[in-house]
Design goal:
The protein has about 350 residues and is of the alpha/beta class. It has helices at about 5, 15-25, 25-40, 60-75, 95-100, 105-110, 180-205, 230-245, 250-255, 265-275, 300-320, 325-340; strands at about 45-50, 85-90, 120-125, 140-145, 205-215, 280-285, 345-355.
C-alpha cells in the first residue's frame, strides 16, 4: 500500500472533535511558543508551517489564533506586526480546495480586528509527505503539527515474512498475542521516520526556530495498554466480526496492519538526542476528556473519528464492498461496553523543540 497515494481523511472536519479538544487543551503552549520565537527573533516576515493540516475550518483556526497572539506580542515589544507566510502541508490526497474555499472568511475574520487591517498574510499549500523535504532552507520560524506524527511513513516491512505474509495475523497493531518481533518492527520504523523528520525540519527552520508537535503516545514501556493500543485492539475485534459474517475475507484481515506507532516519552527523548539538531524545551503528557456530548456516546464519537481517519485505507485494502457503517457501529458499541468495565485512557504528548 502506497500511503502517500491512498491515505486521506473522509469527513474529518465534521468528525474531529476529539482531536480538536486535545489540541485546544495545549493551545496555550502553542501560543506561548510562537510568541517566544517572535520576541527573540523579531522577523519582518515570519514563516509558519502546519504539517498535517487536513481540511475544513480547523485548518485555519489555529493560524488565526497565532496571528492574534502575535498581534498582542508586537505591541508589548514595540515592534511592527510581521507579514505572515503560512505553509499548509498534508498528503497530496488531502482536500486542499475546501481549505482555500474558507480563505475569504478567514481573511474577513482577521480584518475584524481594527489593529490588523494592514496585516499581510500569504497562505499556500505544500502537498507531500513530511518524511521528505517540503520547504526551502531556513524559511520557517515555527512549525506546528497536531495529531499527525504518530503516523509512520509506511507499514513496517519487517511485519511480513519472505513469502509476503503477515507475522501479526488477526491483529492490526501490536497486541497481547503479537510476538516481540512485531513491536520491534514498529519501533524500528518509528526511529527511522522520526530521526528523518527532525533532520529535514532542521534544514527548513532558522536557528532559534521552534516546533510544537502534538501526537498520540503511551505512558510506559509496555506497548499494550488500556490506551491507544487498546483502541486498535477493538478495531481488530470489529473486523473479526465482519469476517465471521462473511463480509470480508480472513486473508484480508490477516494482511492488514496500520502505519501507526504510539511512542513513549523516553523513545521521543532518545531520538531527539540522537539526531542532535534540536533542544527539547518541553514534553508534557495529557489526556483528553472522555465525555460524549451532542447526544452521542464516547464510543460513537471515537468510532466516527477513527472512521474519518481510516476510511480511505480500509476501502483500499478490503474493497468498496466492506460495510463500514456496520463495522464502526460495532466498534462504537465495543468501546462503550469496555468503558463500563474499565476506563480507556489514550494519552497524548505535546513536544516543544528549539532548533540549535
Amino acid at each position: 500500500m502506497d500511503v502517500e497515494k491512498v491515505f486521506h481523511m473522509t469527513g474529518y472536519a465534521q468528525n474531529s472533535s476529539l482531536q480538536k479538544k486535545g489540541s485546544d487543551m495545549v493551545k496555550h503552549i502553542t501560543m506561548e511558543t510562537i510568541q517566544q520565537v517572535y520576541s527573540e527573533v523579531k522577523p519582518r516576515s515570519i514563516g509558519i508551517a502546519d504539517l498535517g493540516c487536513s481540511s475544513g475550518p480547523n485548518s485555519l483556526s489555529i493560524i488565526k489564533d497565532m496571528v492574534q497572539a502575535l498581534e498582542g506580542t508586537s505591541h508589548k515589544v514595540s515592534h511592527p506586526m510581521p507579514e505572515f507566510r503560512v505553509y499548509l502541508n498534508d498528503l497530496p490526497t488531502n482536500d486542499f480546495n475546501s481549505v482555500f474555499k474558507s480563505l475569504p472568511d478567514f481573511y474577513r475574520d482577521i480584518k475584524k480586528d481594527k489593529n490588523q487591517d494592514d496585516t499581510a498574510i500569504f497562505v499556500g499549500a505544500y502537498p507531500g509527505s513530511f518524511y521528505g523535504r517540503l520547504f526551502p532552507c531556513s524559511c520557517l520560524h515555527f512549525i506546528y503539527s497536531s495529531y499527525s506524527l504518530h503516523w509512520l511513513s509506511k507499514v513496517p516491512p519487517a511485519l511480513y515474512d519472505e513469502r509476503g505474509e503477515s507475522i501479526n495475523k488477526g491483529n492490526v497493531y501490536i497486541s497481547e498475542s503479537s510476538s516481540p518481533i512485531v513491536s520491534q518492527a514498529y519501533y524500528n520504523q518509528f526511529q527511522e521516520d522520526f530521526v528523518l523528520f527532525l533532520k529535514l525540519r532542521s534544514k527548513e527552520l532558522v536557528t532559534g526556530g521552534r516546533m510544537v508537535l502534538i501526537l498520540l503516545g503511551r505512558k510506559g514501556q509496555d506497548h499494550v495498554d488500556r490506551g491507544n493500543s487498546f483502541l486498535w485492539e477493538i478495531l481488530s475485534r470489529s473486523l473479526a466480526i465482519s469476517v465471521s459474517r462473511g463480509e470480508i475475507e480472513r486473508g484480508k484481515l490477516d494482511s492488514y496492519e496500520v502505519h501507526f506507532y504510539a511512542a513513549s516519552r523516553n523513545e521521543i527523548e532518545d531520538e531527539v538526542r540522537r539526531e542532535g539538531s534540536f533542544e527539547m524545551e518541553r514534553l508534557e503528557t495529557f489526556e483528553t476528556e472522555r465525555g460524549g456530548g451532542n447526544g452521542k456516546s464516547y464510543g460513537t464519537k471515537v468510532a466516527m473519528t477513527v472512521r474519518a481517519i481510516l476510511e480511505s485505507l480500509l476501502r483500499d485494502h478490503f474493497g468498496n464492498g466492506i460495510d463500514l457503517d456496520n463495522l464502526f457501529n460495532n466498534y462504537g458499541k465495543m468501546v462503550d461496553k469496555e468503558m463500563v468495565k474499565e476506563d480507556i485512557k489514550p494519552i497524548s504528548f505535546v513536544v516543544v523543540l528549539k532548533k540549535l
